[in-house]
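Exercise 7. Predict the structure of Lysophospholipase-like protein 1 from Crotalus adamanteus.
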Amino acid sequence: MSPRNARLLHDFTLIYSRLDSCECNVTDSQNAQQIPTPLPLRAPESLSLNSWEAESGAALLRELRAPPKRGCAGKEIGDMAVQTALQKSLVAVGPAGRHTASVIFLHGSGDTGQGVRDWIKQVLKQDLSFQHIKVIYPTAPARPYTPMRGSLSNVWFDRYKISNDCPEHTETIDMMCQALNSLIDDEVKNGIRKNRILLGGFSMGGGMALHLAYRHHQEVAGVFALSSFLNKNSAVYQALEKNERELPELFQCHGTPDELVLYSWGEETNKTLKALGVTTTFLSLPNLYHELSKTELEKLRSWILKKLPEEP
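Solution. The predicted structure, encoded as tokens:
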């Protein structure tokens, strides 16, 4: 299966798990209500699976619709093990000489650092590269993922379900924030100031970056979130309600027909962060599903250069 089709198949299995609206292992019954089933979804025209891939996808969907496995949301991975896995998985694209700024780009659920780099190269026909900036692509360690019935997946944190209207799984979010701190610390040790570092990502990676920047590293140059969202009553919002510091600028993009991470979720995230004092840019992209586009990445590249110009 090609990397792109594998990613799309992963996305659509998650869509169907959201449509099933399975009951989650959450104690707050008010926030754990089921999601009403929306209108039937249609796949992007670019999705083309062979018969083996289609059969594999059907089998996986049957597994997703099986009775949910309980307790998978609470499984832990040791902090040191996570940090070690992150360090071993790093993929970096940098200048031949010394870099003076850094971008940490976090992949979406089920992907890898190398996978999202290859995806970007496929869309742009070249790397997202700069003369003075190193772009770092870590990979989230595999962990049980509740929306996939507890199956192992490369995800930054767990979710109770794919919805903005349920509690965040703060335990796994906080654990991953601690692990990702080490990547930022390494750049600082190498002489890169925090205000010369950008944090961001695609889908879940963008959500992870929002937590990392606005709760733990408000000195960074900025944050970008592509097809991403925060849950209602997110810990990010709670942290910013008490904040009096200048906050990193946010660059956010979202496809209007996105059927996995709904456009309205991204729009609501942006409006809430703006109301809490974040300077934001929100780019609406028609005809873009839950994927990357050339227009989006070119706009992101320009924004990165604006936030991290070459130093004299």
